[in-house]
TrEMBL record:
It comes from Nocardiopsis gilva YIM 90087. The lineage of its organism: Bacteria, Bacillati, Actinomycetota, Actinomycetes, Streptosporangiales. The chain crosses the membrane at residues 6-23, 43-67, 73-90, 136-157, 163-188, 200-221, 241-259, 280-305, 325-344, 373-393, 405-423, 430-446, 458-475. This is Sodium/proline symporter. CDD domains: SLC5sbd_PutP. NCBIfam families: Na_Pro_sym (TIGR02121), sss (TIGR00813). InterPro entries: Na/Glc_symporter_sf, Na/Pro_symporter, Na/solute_symporter, Na/solute_symporter_CS, Sodium:Solute_Symporter. The keyword Ion transport applies. It comes from the Bacteria. Keywords: Amino-acid transport, Cell membrane, Ion transport, Membrane, Sodium, Sodium transport, Symport, Transmembrane, Transmembrane helix, Transport. The keyword ATP-binding does not apply.
């Protein structure tokens, strides 16, 4: 208890210190939301990883593998493909387009700070409907996404400190809010680098030590049965892991990367499109190896624990507690906390940006001073955190359920729209709005309908993306792209190709 408390305290102090360090450098909404677009390749790449993989990587994925076996590994395969695709298909073009698209309200280059403002400027939407609808989707799904992190945080504190889950959620969210409140995007990005390193090292060390113990300590009585190991503790039939529904649903998770605002924000905040290729190598390399190690953690847990764990998503913390001395265990458990916090802070920041840039500034006070917008964003961070904490405290959903719900909503609601907006010259506002609403709504409806009526186990991402693409194709025919939109596309297309 003393060792864990000391290591957790040092970690908290380091995160808040970074927030204080960049506090005085945050003087405008651009600084708070995108860090003035000054991230180098290393910071952008590792920050994208830490803000993305969260507790899902250290708790959700190992837990799913531990429980159900090889069938859940398709999710990791799909995510690896999707993550690489987001860097190579979207990052460079989005970085250029968010800066170069003509401002739909004032003319001239836009310097779009949020995904919603980018969509408004890309499609020349003077009505504000596209911006408002996208901001609402962002807020809706981020409440569930942040809540998933808080559920993980509650479980971790409950295990380590024997602290009630509700108290743990309140303590944890308070720390995240504090340094996000102080430093905004730069604080979040710099802390993400530390958190990414901690997460990867923890995933490397724990399964290696566990495998050594299993192979060299006969007195422990661990029996290695690869058939049983691959089926998880539930003994899932390996034939089920190769079923079309399992493969399609798992691989479909990768599509989600095309529409996650907290990851796309790293693409928008990188120093220039020329820095994208190096950042992509760093980020994709980290992601692929980290997910492979997370799978190994789950399989190792099946062999190591003779009695099945009550909570499968605690397999990684349980291995740490069983294998490590208290001081090392404290550092490794802090890595799990890092995973939770690194995603929650990014999501809080994007959600607060939607309230400030796409709500207050766009529809209430367009002439607000830079510092007033910063303080409104800080207040929004607190508001979103309180709402997400309420969701986390109100139910018993697992981390995988909450993440899956939000991931499908973002992936289908924004993924097809963002991808086509970067590559389709003739795409217009009607297609973008229909694709966004159709995809996001289908993700919600399918999740509930399948759970209660159909029971197909098909991940909502699949039908939701199909609906989004059909809606874009149909409604795009009802309007047309303006000459200004086509000129913007040609200019961005030329600049993006020149940086490859």
């Amino acid at each position: 208890m003393v060792a864990s408390t000391a290591t957790f305290a040092m970690y908290f102090v380091a995160m808040v210190a970074i927030g204080l360090w960049v506090y005085k450098r945050t003087t405008s909404l651009s600084d708070f939301v995108l860090g003035g677009r000054q991230l180098n390749s290393w910071v952008a790449g590792l920050s994208a990883n830490a803000s993305d993989f969260s507790a899902w990587l250290l708790l959700g994925l190992p837990g799913a593998i531990y429980l159900s076996g090889l069938g859940e590994a398709w999710i990791a395969v799909g995510l690896a493909i999707g993550f690489a695709a987001s860097w190579y298909l979207i990052a460079g073009r989005l970085r250029v387009y968010t800066e170069r698209a003509t401002d739909a309200r004032n003319g001239g280059e836009s310097n779009s700070l949020t995904l919603s403002s980018y969509l408004e400027n890309r499609f020349g939407d003077h009505s504000g409907v596209l911006r408002g609808a996208s901001a609402i989707l962002i807020l809706l799904f981020y409440l569930f996404y942040v809540a998933s992190g808080l559920v993980a945080m509650g479980g971790l504190f409950e295990k380590v400190f024997d602290m009630p889950s509700a108290v743990a959620i309140i303590v944890g969210v308070s720390i995240v809010v504090l340094y996000t409140f102080l430093g905004g995007f730069l604080a979040v990005s710099y802390t993400d680098v530390i958190q990414a390193v901690m997460m990867w090292l923890a995933l490397l060390v724990v399964p290696i030590v566990a495998i050594i113990v299993v192979m060299t300590d006969p007195s422990a009585g661990h029996e290695v049965d690869f058939g049983s190991m691959l089926g998880g503790v539930e003994g899932t039939n390996l034939g089920d892991a190769l079923a079309p529904i399992a493969i399609i649903s798992g691989l479909a998770w990768g599509i989600g990367y095309l529409g996650q605002p907290h990851i796309l924000a790293r693409f928008m905040g990188i120093r220039s499109a020329k820095a994208v290729p190096q950042a992509a190598v760093i980020s994709v390399g980290w992601a692929v190896t980290a997910m492979a190690l997370a799978l190994l953690v789950g399989f190792t847990g099946v062999v190591f624990f003779d009695t099945p764990l009550e909570d499968a998503e605690q397999v990684f913390p349980s291995l740490i507690s069983a294998l490590m001395n208290p001081w090392v265990a404290g550092l490794l458990l802090a890595a799990i906390l890092a995973a939770v916090m690194s995603t929650a802070d990014s999501q809080l920041l994007v959600a607060s940006s939607a309230i400030t840039e796409d709500g207050y500034r766009a529809f209430v006070n367009r002439e607000a001073s830079p510092m007033k917008l910063v303080w409104i964003s800080r207040a929004a961070v607190v508001g979103v955190a309180v709402a997400a904490a309420a969701i986390a405290l109100s139910g018993n959903q697992t981390i995988m359920e909450l993440v899956g719900y939000a991931w499908a909503g973002f992936g289908a609601g924004f993924g097809p729209v963002i991808l086509l907006s970067l590559y389709w010259r003739k795409m217009n506002r009607g297609g973008a709005l229909a694709g966004m609403v159709g995809g996001g709504a289908t993700a919600v409806i399918w999740t509930e309908l399948d759970a209660r009526v159909m029971h197909t186990d098909l991940y909502a991402m699949v039908p939701a993306v199909v609906v989004s693409l059909i809606a874009i194709a149909v409604f795009n025919n009802l309007g047309r792209a303006s000459q200004q939109m086509e000129d913007d596309f040609d200019r961005v297309d030329g600049e993006a190709k020149a940086t490859v």
